[in-house]
Amino acid sequence: MSQARIGLIGLGVMGANLSLNIADNGFPVAVYNRTSSVTDEFVASSGDLADKLSPAHTLEALVASLTTPRAVIIMVAAGAVDAVIDELKPHLDKGDMIIDAGNANFHDTRRREAALKNDGLNFIGMGVSGGEEGARFGPSIMAGGDIASFEVIRDILEAISAKHNGQPCADHFGPDGAGHFVKTVHNGIEYADMQMIAEVYGLLRDGDKRPTAEIGKLFEAWDQGPLNSYLIEISGKVLQAVDEKTGNPLVDMIVDKAGQKGTGRWTAIEALSLGQSPSTIEAAVAGRSWSSEKETREAGEAIFADIQPQAGAETLSDADLEKALLAAKIIAYDQGIKLLAAASEEYKWDLDLASCAEVWRAGCIIRSALLDDMASAVREGLPHTQLIFAPRFAQIIREGSSALRRVVASAALRGLPTPAFSNALAYFDTMRMGRGTTDLIQGQRDFFGAHSFERTDGGKGHHGPWASDVAHSAALTD
Ligand code: NAP
Question: Where does this protein act, in terms of pathway (predicted)?
Fold first, then answer.
């Protein structure tokens, strides 16, 4: 085989499928896996694509089989990236590039990019979404790092990516960690979306005692409307699946402890350090963390078994739930986009926010019918960087917020937790209230800490008339 344009290290689920995708698009690809037998088995089972795959059993051989400047994708377990870079580096020449296509904390990406630059090597931090199927047939690709290097492999990335109306869902978002940050926020939104769908499931299952398969059918129906999305589609399928062993709905046989690899948590952590609070994403992270406390929750259920639903809970119609879910989901995207804007400013990335929404329209886990409209709204310019203020979304939120309000109120009265919905509503109500209640908090801060406040009629650095009260409080505590 002629020399390959690109190499790939790590033939796990994602790496194997990405290699097949690259080969399937006509690009010869050199592949390497730490465990050599995996490489051989992979190539042997790749059928017609084998002639596009060049197996290497050492990193030296992998590098030797590539055209220059060399481009090597690393797709290994997150904790192994630095070790693989250290092993690979001595075989590369100045101007070559390493592409980390796994999920990485963007701070690590920034660190790796800076370190490799010192060695004359280029680094691309590249988020890939879409799971196994996406990797094989078209993922959404969010790259960051050296733009000149990206241009060298742009044709490959665009060819293997998902397409929305023929437009590739692959882009370069900015220097160093920009791509991995966009992927992290994508995952944060994914967390919020999944949590909200699960909250609807909880309201229908525990509030209305609806059979599981019926809820699945409802999601299937919603998938034909404005909620059309990959996550609604698969939720409908998961809820209608039957356990072969017991004949029960499969979901009843799944322990309600959610896993998380960290990207949702990273989103929340980074947001907080940027002075942001994407409360729907935070609620989703909290929901997963709380879910892991299964034994505690079971103990709590026994202790508080006497607490009954309160009177006054409205019966929720399916239409209300659908509208509430749509509104809450838009709010989650609003928070994600705002976070991207804040990070872009902090790290001088100059992120194209519309392009973020555009590459999410196909191939990735959060793909949905809404994203096309969102991308257009962002392209047109968001008032105050708020998606919910964009005219086409303001109208949906205006209508959906009353349904969201009924859902949150009903859930509270029935004692059913809806952290993401509740946080979506609180955020919306806060963002539509010109005068909030932080005037009191500023007063409190000035009272106990002389932090000063800004006056509504102008001027910063003012203090309240409580100096003698403060002295009195101090005397009481002495
Ligand atoms: P994974 O289980 O995270 O990684 C498996 C691969 O890593 C194997 O090829 C393994 O080689 C290699 N590896 C592990 N430790 C190594 C080390 N110390 N040195 C060299 N190679 C090492 O597989 P994955 O699910 O395909 O994920 C890869 C990356 O993609 C991760 O960052 C993941 O978070 C990200 N990602 C995954 C998904 C998904 O749906 N799975 C979606 C998006 C992104 P051996 O065969 O020798 O063990």
Answer: Carbohydrate degradation; pentose phosphate pathway; D-ribulose 5-phosphate from D-glucose 6-phosphate (oxidative stage): step 3/3
